[in-house]
């Protein structure tokens, strides 16, 4: 007789099947280097976002009133916008350094030398080949040039590694200090890589950034939609449901480069006077998912635990509450545990899907402003929304998805609570 497989086991088996290839993708040296490099640009992006928020508060051109929200900032509004341009607006330039360094570390070559190589090659690729004076368009240093920055960082580092492996370098005696030795050994690969980049941009007059953006813009536009977002959150939460870090395994390596670019696009649009409800993108870095996912999937469950008749659930609920406010949910996922819990896994996955549909729909319909600023990932949702979008109505969205989660969880949690009470009473009888 064929053994019956429970729903929880089926979910676990399916999650494990998709987890293995995703884990392999995330661990590819190039992918991991991109991920780490982009994470290292986060302080720059967050600082740029702070200046953008100050610009929004001080600019009379933002909103319909014709007056600045904070009048004392109005004289400095344009200067604050410049800082946003020098941070988020130069994102690709900074990424060319951080990604190259991380990839060089993976390949076992000198990180500092590789960082200079990646930066210089990216600058050369952005020369104006039609201008004899060597004009550089700084617009390519921002979000539009990020994909080219990634490609340049990986390719230039790989070619540099190839030259070292084939010993096509200038070798100096061992008595020469390493810093001088590295400088001379990099001359030949630098000359070749720079010449290739210069030839492509100047001799062939091939604008890599414009060509690639023209090619990928339809793909980027199509990717930022409700179907993609719901699928993203469904897979992320499915992996979390079996104890795997869904964000690190799926969302970060696959979506982060796009979401960082979309955030930069929104920031630029906001700085140019576009309304927050009309910004071009909804899926942004540390935006919609940080605002509503764990608000719906973790907070209601913790409230039910705190009000539970089961002593250990009440104690655990209070312990999980402080970190959960900052969307740190590992104590709940692994402490309850929520992962592979036969009573709670169904409402957990259902809540994730419903919350994704409702929250994306609210942004798409213009009911709330879209994110134009990146905040630290642990910013509480009721602060993240108003600060990152400039729209206090995001607090209402947080409350709405919380109650959606509470309604979905309630009947399942009561069954779970009943089961735990029976265990607790049985243990008391035995004692």
Q: What distance separates the N and C termini?
A: 40 Å
β-strand percent reads under 5%
Number of helices: 19
Nearest-integer average pLDDT: 84
- Structural domain tally: 2
Largest sheet: none
The helix-and-strand class reads mainly alpha
Poorly predicted spans: none
Note the main attributes of this structure.
single chain, 431 residues, mainly alpha, 2 domains, 69% helix
Walk me through what this model shows:
This protein is mainly alpha-helical and 431 residues long. It folds into 2 domains: 29-217, no CATH class; 224-430, no CATH class. 69% of the residues lie in helices and 0% in strands. It has helices at residues 7-26, 29-40, 42-58, 77-87, 91-107, 111-125, 146-165, 178-185, 187-203, 208-223, 226-240, 246-271, 288-297, 299-306, 311-325, 330-335, 345-364, 381-389, 394-430. α1 crosses α12. The chain is globular. The mean pLDDT is 84.
Can you give me a brief rundown of this structure?
The chain contains 19 helices and no strands.
Helix-strand blueprint:
Layout: H1 7-26, H2 29-40, H3 42-58, H4 77-87, H5 91-107, H6 111-125, H7 146-165, H8 178-185, H9 187-203, H10 208-223, H11 226-240, H12 246-271, H13 288-297, H14 299-306, H15 311-325, H16 330-335, H17 345-364, H18 381-389, H19 394-430
Helix pairs in contact: 1-12, 2-5, 2-12, 3-4, 5-6, 5-7, 6-7, 6-9, 7-9, 11-12, 11-17, 13-17, 13-18, 13-19, 14-15, 14-19, 17-19
